[in-house]
Amino acid sequence: xxxxxxxxxxxxxxxxxxxxxxxxxxxxxxxxxxxxxxxxxxxxxxxxxxxxxxxxxxxxxxxxxxxxxxxxxxxxxxxxxxxxxxxxxxxxxxxxxxxxxxxxxxxxxxxxxxxxxxxxxxxxxxxxxxxxxxxxxxxxxxxxxxxxxxxxxxxxxxxxxxxxxxxxxxxxxxxxxxxxxxxxxxxxxxxxxxxxxxxxxxxxxxxxxxxxxxxxxxxxxxxxxxxxxxxxxxxxxxxxxxxxxxxxxxxxxxxxxxxxxxxxxxxxxxx
Length: 271
Ligand code: C2E
Ligand code: MG
Ligand code: MG
Ligand code: MG
Hints:
Layout: H1 2-36, E1 40-48, E2 54-65, E3 69-71, H2 77-83, H3 86-101, E4 108-112, H4 115-119, H5 123-134, E5 141-146, H6 147-151, H7 154-166, E6 170-176, H8 185-188, E7 193-196, H9 198-201, H10 208-223, E8 227-230, H11 236-244, E9 249-250, E10 259-260, H12 261-270
Parallel strand pairs: 2-4, 4-5, 5-6, 6-7, 7-8, 8-9
Antiparallel strand pairs: 1-2, 1-10, 2-3
Helix pairs in contact: 3-5
The chain binds ligand C2E and magnesium ion (MG) (3 copies).
């Protein structure tokens, strides 16, 4: 009986492994098709200032799968990154965003750029070309990158950032505080903004170590003259605490979840 149970376990194990491999393979093919047949959706989340006004948005992609429904980016961005599909996918997000900019001259627009996309040797050219094609104003465009990207291959990254900065583009460090990196890179790179990771905002105002970390990040940012955006603001208590330490730019469900781009922009135009 033990032997049979053992065999059964092995079979189950093998089956689940195969399923994982197959579903990943399947998902890859489907994502390729999805990209071609316009299944990607551009969602935007508002960024709000101290006056409670929406001053900008962040582009967050979703995949509207014909059978599986709306798939969040965490389930396909890593796959796209592994397979290289992030290059056309990222180009799509950037272009869709740039196309919206002309119609909304009072808003800033932020786009997430993953490491492989940023490191692609054609990236600067691609951005330049999309700016030309769309006539979008680069001064209202921010690229969100992560700390990890900047530390690995520092020289190459900083060179590329400077080229993009010359075009008028700004840079933001996404998920700031989660990268275990030294802070010295902040003064060596053309960075305009830090985004405090949601994990530090979660425990505010009661968690004293989160509070201390947020205050420390504010001090660093003040010293280096960087803007700070708090991610994942969900409650009025978090809002009040952040205001009290001088963090006035917020993003989070308290203000608005990501929603289809046209929907958010139409509402903003009316108010
Ligand atoms: P991110 O850039 O750090 O985006 C913030 C994530 O936190 C978003 O998840 C957003 O919906 C979520 N969020 C915002 N406010 C709150 C809140 O108050 N509470 C909670 N619980 N969550 C909140 P989303 O849209 O699922 O995106 C996840 C990640 O996928 C993004 O993290 C980003 O790293 C990546 N991503 C999304 N779109 C793109 C894209 O177009 N290109 C690339 N390369 N990555 C993308
Ligand atoms: Mg982001
Ligand atoms: Mg983030
Ligand atoms: Mg994130």
